[in-house]
Task: structure prediction
Amino acid sequence: MTISLRASSAWAAGSTSVAPAIPTGTTTGDRMVLFVGTKPYNATIVCPTGWTPLTAGSGAHGSTANGVDTGSVLWGVFYKDWRSGDAAPTVSVTSGNVSLGTIHSYSKTAASWVTLPVAEKGSDTSSGTGFSLTMGSDVGITAGDMLATFAVIAGNNATFGTPTITATSATIGSVTEEPATEGTTTTGNDLEASASYASCTAGTATAAAVVGWTLSVAQTGGGCLVRLRESSATQTIISANTGADNSSFSATQMRELNPTTNYGSAVATNEFEIHTWGAIDRGHMLLTPTGLVTAVPAGANIVSAILQVWNASGTANYTVDMHRVIRAATSSGATWLTYDGTNLWTTSGALGSSDVDMTAVASATVDSVVGYRSWDVTSWVQSVVNGAVANQGLLGVRNPDNAADSTVHGFQPPGGTDHTRPRLVVLYTAPQKWSWTTAPPRNTLLRM
Result:
């Protein structure tokens, strides 16, 4: 198995938006990584439709005011698997003064990508020419992984030298700057950026990676490293998004303030909310990938299963838990009081132990960044395809559910904007089938 750089786009410059091109030759199945750097540090880089933010790799390197060749920088990194018809993104940068962006596309030789790339960030505030970004954690680099790095500095008065990537106990191959010409702009208060890639050829990292350059002039800045990995497992995507392998996915909101309302009929116009609103209103979300039972063979080994829901609005940071639903709930009928429009939940809002498994299947933090949020629901999907539990869906609930701080996050429903609809991405291997080329000896004890 081998991951290779397909191509990169030239750096694109702007202020309140930036529009890097799709790299030449990108084709179906290629994984794209989009990087945007900007000033000032308190601008907002808006995730483009259909892309997934890698929030662990995004950040700022301080809070110094924006000026010519000075000030703290902000950066964001996103990924997307290319499908026919995908157009180049225009990335909005709210309150941006100067921005640079580029896209890398990578090809694989294995059947699938490991569902989620892993990203981490680092910064250098020392204002020297030895520019070094130590990542915030070890992203698990091992042989065969592809590493993409991106960095942005506060001005174009400095240029980047040859990039380096090191990770204790891992052997990193040749590091290549890509695009070969670094990004530079005199728009606004100036910016400079560089990107590179390399493969891990042997070993497994035992410490956080360090990405470095020698600058021509002392500067400060930050950036990220993205780890890409491929898999021999089969991938299937269950979603109402165009291009999904199975489009059968239903969802609805259940709201305490309107306890008898079913929101299934509003899926094309309304965001579904997971929230707590003082002491009078809570919102839960029922998500059911109904196509799971036909998309994945019974008894398959689930390598990974990632539920992704598009965070469309909201500013507060809080945890959302996904619980396995026990009742035979329907998205077309469920309300705060009933699971199918007729039969009552044991506890209103589906919070009883006869309604849902009280132990969460998965948890994730949602914040102000627009884009997909991910929950690892591998264990639940494995139980469904094994026949151990029925596919009654998952219930999204804020944790804690009784917080009286009036915060709301809105999530895109199955009938929302294309490429922002809920999706379940499953990697699996087919169930093992036993066969004999010759009959086993009589009285042979078989151990499975």
The helical segments are 292-295, 378-385.
